[in-house]
Amino acid sequence: MYSFGTEYGWVTETPAYHAWERGLFMAGYVAAALGVALLEPVLSEAGATILPRLVATAFPMATVVVLVMEALSFVGAGAPAALVVLAVLLLFGAEVLLGGALLVIRLVPAWIGWATVAWNVAWPVVLAVVSPGDPYYPVLHAIPLLVIGIPLVRRAG
Questions:
Q1: CA distance 99 to 118
Q2: Residues 1-27: tens digit of each pLDDT
Q3: Which one, of 36, 30, 27, 20, lies nearest residue 98 by Cα?
Q4: What are phi and psi of 62, to 5 degrees?
Q5: Are 116 and 99 in contact (CB under 8 A)?
Q6: Can you say whether residue 98 is alpha, beta or left, with left for phi > 0 and alpha for psi between -120 and 50 degrees?
């Protein structure tokens, strides 16, 4: 829905379409924040002490900023550029901390921790060059969480 729908003329932007699109993103961020919060005790029990608490604080904090930013689109006001940049940087920062915590405890293969750290350090730099006016691409925050979640789900099964 996000880019393809209205940008390529596949659908017409209606209030209902907008509500579904933004609502799905908001629900996704809430689910991700809950998942990261549930991961905190596992990370703590595995030996990491400070990073899990930082992750469990930073990711929900970033999610709240994103929810406010997305909610502004429902009242017709666009999110201020500073709020968008803050949300993006908080999300990338929280995922860097998550990657670091995964590296410390080895809950998943080390390459996943390193890839998470590298992904979340590189993309803000890339976005500053390629898309300085619009750094908000939600899929960039979902991919590392998906890569982290797959081995965790397989391990639990």
A1: 9
A2: 455 556 666 677 778 887 888 899 899
A3: 36
A4: -65, -40
A5: yes
A6: alpha
Residue with tokens 């908080």: 90
Q: Indicate the burial class of 5 (C-beta count within 10 angstroms; 0-12, 13-18, 19 or more).
A: middle
Instruction: Mark out the alpha helices in 46-138 (DSSP H runs).
Output: 50-72, 81-105, 110-130
Mean model confidence pLDDT for the chain: 87
Left, alpha or beta for 12 (phi > 0: left; psi -120 to 50: alpha)?
A: beta
Sequence-distant (6+) residues with CB within 8 A of 25 are 2, 70, 138
Structure tokens at 49: 């002490």
Tell me which DSSP letter residue 80 carries.
P
- The answer to whether the beta carbons of residues 95 and 120 sit under 8 Å apart is yes
3-class secondary-structure state, position 72: helix
This prediction has a pTM of 0.86
Number of residues in the chain = 157
The structure tokens listed for 129 are 């060059």
Angle at which helices 81-105 and 50-72 pack, to 10 degrees? 150
